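Final report, closing paragraph on structural work. Over the funding period we assembled a curated collection of sequence-structure pairs, and we close with a single example.
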Amino acid sequence: MSQHKVILLLGSNLGEQKKNIELALQKIKEAGNHISQTSDFLMSDPVEFASSNIFCNIATIIFTHLSPIQLLDCIKNIEIEMGRITDSKVTGGYTDRLIDIDIIKYNELNFTSERLEIPHKKHLFEREFSRILLKDFI
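Its predicted structure, as stored:
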């Protein structure tokens, strides 16, 4: 089985944000993925919703044997395990969250389904904090 290079963005704006992200990274690794590179933490204001809670964000490169949908299922399970109860794809809007994990790129794949869009165009082209985090990864 071949390994796929994937760029993820992780964010948290509830609880101990850095610890939430570190725990999520550990769970990603425990799920059989190899973490190759991780950015520095970046604090940012919420985007596309109002909140007084600041986000802590990182970018990471992983190598995985999982398909895009398998990886999505894996990271959604991690979010749920960590206590995330709402998903913006389901609710249609953003809220504060303990952990958020997004697939930004998966090799050079272009893929769109109801559940997943690769590459994640909002992070690549619209969100300033994402561009800062991804500048050394893309």
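The mean pLDDT is 89. The CA atoms of residues 43 and 56 lie 5 Å apart. We thank the funder for supporting this effort.
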